[in-house]
Amino acid sequence: MFVRESRLTGALQVPHGRPRRAGSVAFGAALAVASMTGAALGQTAPPTGPAPSGSAPPSGTPGGYPPSSAAPGTPSQPGAPPSGPQPPGYAQPSPPPPGAAGQPNYPPPSPPSSSPPPGYPPSAGYPPNYAQQGQQPTTQQPVYGQPAGYGTYAEPPLPPPPKRIELQWSLRFQLLNLLFGRVTGEVEYAFAGPFSLVLLPEYVFNQPIDNRPDGLTAKGGGIAGEFGFWVEGRPLRGYFLKAHAGYRSITVTGPLDEIAIPATEVGALFGSQSIYGGWFTLSGGFGVVYDFQSKDRPFTVGYDSTGRRVGSIRASGLFGNGFDLLGQLSIGGSF
């Protein structure tokens, strides 16, 4: 600036004391002032027309961007685009075309392909992705389901439930008949489903008689049979209905007389039987029987003052009419 001012001063001095023309001096002074003002500010006047495409950006901005609107004193990062609106008339720099000077010549990217890289076998079971390649599938894509054998696998059938053990034989002893002078056993066999047959052998060692005289004894025996139906369907368990039929003969011997007393009984009873521990049996029932040979029988137990025979054996039954109670209370084992 000072050099130019010295030049301006020198231009105003004319050698030999002869002044130049006034117009030339004024034009030179104006041009010098304009030059010094532009050099001091470091800017040039903006162009008056639109910038041609492809032309270089103004020299006052780095990388072709307009001046930053950041506050004074704020350091700007190198290469970052300035913030703020661009002044009109400046076009954004367009990327150089491929192959331009100063740019590496890279080949254009290829579309994605479903083929595996070289050296790797193709993956089996997956169809090519036609949507990414922009192609339409020419064949129907296979349907992938469960592996072979899984869809047709059938679980083995469950084993049949274990067959329950049904009892077939039962051996029992009647406790209740001991009160009436009898020893009775029971042998029962389940022959078909809920049906069973019972055999009852009996031994008589005493006979209840009204007004029993001294020295009177009674002995005998008998046999009976029963046909049983088990209500719950399992033989020798639970509730039962049984038909009863039997024959008994008892011989009564006294000091003066002896007589045989037969009995033919038919009846029925209802009861139940329980099994404990798999074999121990407790059975009981209650029923009614009728004796077809029930009647009063004469029996001499002594003589009166006239010498006649005195005494008789009363007819069987609760009321002497042949009907009697039939009771059973037995213990034993079943298998």
Q: What is the topology?
A:
Layout: H1 2-12, H2 22-41, H3 130-133, E1 169-174, E2 182-192, E3 195-204, E4 217-230, E5 238-253, E6 258-276, E7 280-291, E8 297-303, E9 309-313, E10 323-334
Antiparallel strand pairs: 1-2, 1-10, 2-3, 3-4, 4-5, 5-6, 6-7, 7-10, 8-9
CATH architecture of the domain at 169-334: Beta Barrel
The number of distinct helices, counting runs of at least 4 residues, comes to: 3
Order of helices and strands: HHHEEEEEEEEEE
Supply the CATH class of the domain at 169-334: Mainly Beta
Distance between the termini: 138 Å
Fraction of residues in helix: 10-25%
Strand order of the largest sheet: 1-2-3-4-5-6-7-10
CATH topology value of the domain at 169-334: Porin
- What is the CA-atom radius of gyration, in angstroms? 69 Å
Gross geometry: rod-shaped
Number of DSSP strands? 10
Helix/strand/pairing category: mainly beta
Instruction: Give a short account of the largest sheet.
Output: 8 strands, antiparallel, barrel
Overall pLDDT score: 73
| Low-confidence sequence ranges | 1-22, 39-64, 68-76
What attributes characterize this protein structure?
about 325 residues; mainly beta; Porin; 8-stranded antiparallel β-barrel; two-stranded antiparallel sheet; 3 helices; about 35% strand; disordered N terminus
What would you say this structure looks like, in words?
This protein is mainly beta. It has a domain of 166 residues: Porin, CATH 2.40.160. The protein has an eight-stranded antiparallel β-barrel with strand order 1-2-3-4-5-6-7-10. A two-stranded antiparallel sheet has the order 8-9. Strand 8 and strand 9 form a beta hairpin. Helix 1 packs antiparallel against helix 2. The protein is rod-shaped, with a radius of gyration of 69 Å. The N terminus is likely disordered.
